[in-house]
Design goal:
Strand content: under 5%
Oligomer: single chain
Helix content: over 70%
Number of strands: 0
Radius of gyration: 22 Å
Order of helices and strands: HHHHH
Number of helices: 5
Largest sheet: none
Structural class: mainly alpha
């Protein structure tokens, strides 16, 4: 809370740091991490291209693996290790945010439905959601158990 202004008895407004100035390091590491993650995802899509009308396995596995890594990462940086303030934005938001691709997931579903493969689209919709949630939950739980055993 700002100190009261002696002349008026009201709180004096303090100059605020510019948003960009205070957040520039965070924005920078998110951008760098996002570029790394997006390049890794793009490389996966080149290595294992999806067949038109087929189940988009590459995007499915990228999202599931990314969610599992998020589960491990969040346990480690919130319960085990005090990370530098830029680690979470760089790796969690940047790298893993750029790697996982729920926007492509939505586009894939739309393409499948538009091209007459509604059943595949619905299966993909449900399978990705369930697998991603299971991956993050199982990875976080497994990480906690492994770390608990190591502390004994």
């Amino acid at each position: 809370m700002p100190a009261p202004d002696i002349r008026t008895g009201t709180a004096a407004a303090q100059p605020r740091p510019s948003v960009l100035g205070g957040q520039a390091p965070v924005l920078s590491v998110v951008a760098i991490g996002g570029a790394i993650g997006a390049c890794a995802r793009y490389a996966a899509s080149l290595a294992w291209p999806a067949q038109t009308g087929g189940f988009p396995w590459t995007t499915f596995w990228v999202n599931v693996v990314g969610c599992a890594v998020i589960g491990v990462f969040m346990v480690v940086i919130t319960e085990i290790w005090t990370a530098h303030r830029l680690v979470r934005p760089f790796f969690g938001t940047g790298v893993l945010g750029g790697f996982t691709t729920f926007s492509t997931y939505a586009v894939d579903i739309q393409k499948l439905v538009d091209h007459g493969h509604a059943g595949t689209g619905l299966a993909y919709l449900a399978a990705t959601l369930l697998a991603a949630l299971a991956a993050v939950t199982l990875a976080a739980t497994a990480t906690r158990r492994v770390l608990k055993r190591r502390r004994r």
